[in-house]
Amino acid sequence: MYHPFSVAETIKSAWIIFRKNFVTIIVYSVVSFLLLGILGVVIGVFYSPEDYWISMIVTFIMVWLQAYTTLGLYKLIFTVIDSEYYDFEFIQVIPKAKMVWSYLAVVFIFAFVITNLGILVDYFDDSPDIQFAIEVVAGIIGLFVALRVMFFNTFIVDDASGPIESIKQSFELTRGNLLKVVVILGIIILLIAVPAKLAQSYGVVILSILFTYPFVNIVLAVTYRKLVYSHQDVDDDIAETT
Fold first, then answer.
1. Is residue 102 assigned to a domain?
2. Could you tell me what percentage of the chain is helix, strand and coil, using 3-state DSSP and rounding each to the nearest 5?
3. Are the beta carbons of 67 and 85 closer than 8 angstroms?
4. Number of domains observed in the structure of the chain
5. What is the mean pLDDT of the chain?
6. Structural domain includes residue 39
7. Domain range for residue 65?
8. What distance in Å separates the CA atoms of residue 28 and residue 13, rounded to the nearest whole number?
């Protein structure tokens, strides 16, 4: 390939993008976390978990807002990458309704599958060996699928793909690069797990999520773009703009 995918170059490019757009990205992250936090407090005060329909509405609102802020962050990341040499307007980073619904559709598809697997496992309560075998097989398949579909959200944002289309595109994108994707995912898990572990002893460390969360999403966005360029066998213009 003209520009083969490189883990080291991906992390370097992600760091340069994060550093150059630090204030913009951090401000967005802070506002997003404040919105989610305020909504959480409001729900905690007025929410009654005994009411089924209220529970459903609250859950949907939280999932919708999480989807909106997540897609908004990806829109912002792709915008700062593509607008390296010209200014952009705030409206450009607002995700469209179709993107949010596509994202939610994928989330609900996987939630449906996981829920039914849980029901299947519970069905074999009297057969622990079968139950264990199902859990192992489901875990292996689940990990494989998670690795193959981890870029569905970037296709939804960057390519305006629908839910099924984005899953198919992610499968195709990771073909032939699964080991490198595993390495990227391992780095992301470390960036999330280490601060989370330290926060158990030092509460103030939890604030680091304001930095690590946007950075790991930049890593995913850059990985996606570089894999796309690699599959298209064209030069990597992310490397040029950074």
1. yes
2. 80, 0, 20
3. no
4. 1
5. 82
6. yes
7. 7-233
8. 20
